[in-house]
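Narrative summary of target 7.
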Amino acid sequence: VQLVESGGGLVQAGGSLRLSCAASGFTSSAYYMGWFRQSPGKEREAVAHLYADGTTSIADSVKGRFTASLDGAKNTLYLQMNTLKPEDTAVYYCAAKLSRYSDIYWGQGTQVTVSS
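Modeled conformation, tokenized:
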């Protein structure tokens, strides 16, 4: 399983970015995919969860500003980030589980920096 994130960069506060996570190495839909982020000196935190049964959730800190979606045909997970704030600055990671009890796979991360 390979997860490759892209789309990070430097943006001014109030701006937008769209992150992508291209997944490969499995032939069926993943049981779970999600976005996490980690700022320097802080623990990794969950941003959005998407399950194969259609269940989704998003962190309160980004609700109303971020939207996660999955293109099953392309096996690509997206995170649309609007109205970005300096506190959104972090390395953003994509994650996936092939089944409920499988290991979790991580991408290499993509840096998002929001300037004030």
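The chain has a mean pLDDT of 94.
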